[in-house]
């Protein structure tokens, strides 16, 4: 028995190292080594047959934990910022209510968008001015709605009286009824024709950052009136809104005022400058500070109007823009035809368009300058 145990021990000691060597050649071992690293690592060491081992790939567990914690913090911050915005809106509503209780001129209804606009204003005086503007606009809107309802009631009474009559004198007429929809189609066809063959008229929209919110809204209303008057003319201009930023304040105000009609409007809006669209020798920038007097209307020129409403009295913005681009300038001959009394010679955007449209159709300065407000002058000269 002792002899058998001795033989078994000798066989085991001679065969076991060889078996372990063959197993290492054909197997994959996961080994962990202790090293005094600052962070924990996991080493994966492959052992392939007849292939030199690649350097071990290390996975930094601490860095992975930091990434996961950062993601959780980002998810937590999003609702926090939303809560801060809600609290700021609540504080602004309380500010509006306090001013209303104090007897100030405050609108009865104020939207969330108007509250956000109010939050963007930095000073107390600017916020009070904006609230006063909203209150005045609300009163005007209510007055217009009341007049509209009154006219609607009067129209119903008149129609009721006509229907109660026995005679058909009003219906039997040689005058055909020209409906408003047909008239709108006619105006749209003229505007579409002007986009192909009409004389261009450029609105420079580069001044949107030079105006307050109230001034920009006034500018948008004046441009809307200009577009409507131009579309109703016999030979309308092809309107170009140049330097119009896609995400700017102007485009947001236009989409809010026009609604769905903005996409169907017969105008050209672009981010490019007019110097990239038209030859420089045909461009004339109309500005009241120019030294050149516009004596005649030139049909081969392209006139530029600066879309700026500045109630602060800052002068020279449009002239500076024209000089920066090295363009020709001109001003209306107001002193040659009108007895100018008081006030600046700055006209609104819709007044400028009415004057230019009348000049284009008639060429008569007296007819064109009738759109200048009479409060600014004492009448026309005789000659």
UniProtKB/TrEMBL annotation:
Where primarily located? mitochondrion
| Entry keyword set | Coiled coil, Methyltransferase, Mitochondrion, S-adenosyl-L-methionine, Transferase, Transit peptide, tRNA processing
The domain of life is: Eukaryota
**Catalysed reactions listed for this entry:** an adenosine in mRNA + S-adenosyl-L-methionine = an N(1)-methyladenosine in mRNA + S-adenosyl-L-homocysteine + H(+); adenosine(9) in tRNA + S-adenosyl-L-methionine = N(1)-methyladenosine(9) in tRNA + S-adenosyl-L-homocysteine + H(+); guanosine(9) in tRNA + S-adenosyl-L-methionine = N(1)-methylguanosine(9) in tRNA + S-adenosyl-L-homocysteine + H(+)
Please give the Gene Ontology molecular function terms for this protein: identical protein binding; tRNA (adenine(9)-N1)-methyltransferase activity; tRNA (guanosine(9)-N1)-methyltransferase activity; tRNA binding
Which BP terms from GO are recorded?
Answer: mitochondrial tRNA 3'-end processing; mitochondrial tRNA 5'-end processing; mitochondrial tRNA methylation; mRNA processing; positive regulation of mitochondrial translation
Q: Which residues form the SAM-dependent MTase TRM10-type domain?
A: 187-379
Q: What EC number(s) does the entry state? A: 2.1.1.218, 2.1.1.221
Instruction: Report the locations given in the UniProt record.
Output: Mitochondrion
Give any Gene Ontology cellular component.
Answer: tRNA methyltransferase complex
Question: What is the protein name given in its UniProt record?
Answer: tRNA methyltransferase 10 homolog C
The record lists the organism as Crocodylus porosus (Saltwater crocodile)
Gene that encodes it: TRMT10C
């Amino acid at each position: 028995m002792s002899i058998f145990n001795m033989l078994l021990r000798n066989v085991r000691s001679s065969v076991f190292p060889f078996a372990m060597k063959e197993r290492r050649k054909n197997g994959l071992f996961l080994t962990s080594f202790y090293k005094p690293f600052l962070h924990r690592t996991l080493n994966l060491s492959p052992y392939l047959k007849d292939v030199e081992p690649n350097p071990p790939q290390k996975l930094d567990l601490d860095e992975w934990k930091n990434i996961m914690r950062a993601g959780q913090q980002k998810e937590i911050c999003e609702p926090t910022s939303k809560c801060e915005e809600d609290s700021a809106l609540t504080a602004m509503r309380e500010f509006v209510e306090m001013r209303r209780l104090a007897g100030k001129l405050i609108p009865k209804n104020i939207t969330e968008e108007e509250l956000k606009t109010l939050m963007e204003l930095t000073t107390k005086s600017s916020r009070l001015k904006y609230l006063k503007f909203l209150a005045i606009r609300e009163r005007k809107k209510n007055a217009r709605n009341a007049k509209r309802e009154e006219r609607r009631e009067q129209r119903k009474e008149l129609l009721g009286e006509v229907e109660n009559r026995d005679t058909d004198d009003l219906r039997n007429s040689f005058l055909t009824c020209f409906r408003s929809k047909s008239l709108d189609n006619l105006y749209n066809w003229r505007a579409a024709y002007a986009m192909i063959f009409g004389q261009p008229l450029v609105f420079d929209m580069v001044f949107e950052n030079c105006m307050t919110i109230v001034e920009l809204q006034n500018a948008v209303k004046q441009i809307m009136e200009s577009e409507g008057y131009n579309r109703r003319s016999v030979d309308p201009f092809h309107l170009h809104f140049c330097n119009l930023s896609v995400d700017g304040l102007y485009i947001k105000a236009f989409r809010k005022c026009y609604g769905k009609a903005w996409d169907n409007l017969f105008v050209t809006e672009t981010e490019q400058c007019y110097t990239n669209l038209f030859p420089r020798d045909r461009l004339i920038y109309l500005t009241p500070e120019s030294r050149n007097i516009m004596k005649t209307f030139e049909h081969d020129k392209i006139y530029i109007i600066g879309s700026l409403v500045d109630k602060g009295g800052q002068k020279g913005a449009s002239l500076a823009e024209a000089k920066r681009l090295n363009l020709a300038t001109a001003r209306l001959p107001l002193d040659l035809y009108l007895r100018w009394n008081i006030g600046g010679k700055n006209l609104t955007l819709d007044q400028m368009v009415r004057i230019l449209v009348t000049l284009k159709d008639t060429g008569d300065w007296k007819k064109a300058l009738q759109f200048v407000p009479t409060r600014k002058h004492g009448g026309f000269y005789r000659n």
